[in-house]
Amino acid sequence: MSFSGALSPAERLSLSLDGLARAVAGRIVSRVMSAVMILLVWRRVKRVEREILGLLARLAAGRLRVVAMPRSGGGGGGARSADVRLPRGFAWLLPLVPCDAACFAGQIRTVLAEPEMVELLRVSPQARRVLRPLCRMLGIEGAVIGDVPVAGASVAGGSVGEVAPVARVRPKPAPVDLGRVPLPRGVLAAARRQGFGRR
Question: Coil, strand or helix: which one is 155?
Answer without folding.
Answer: strand
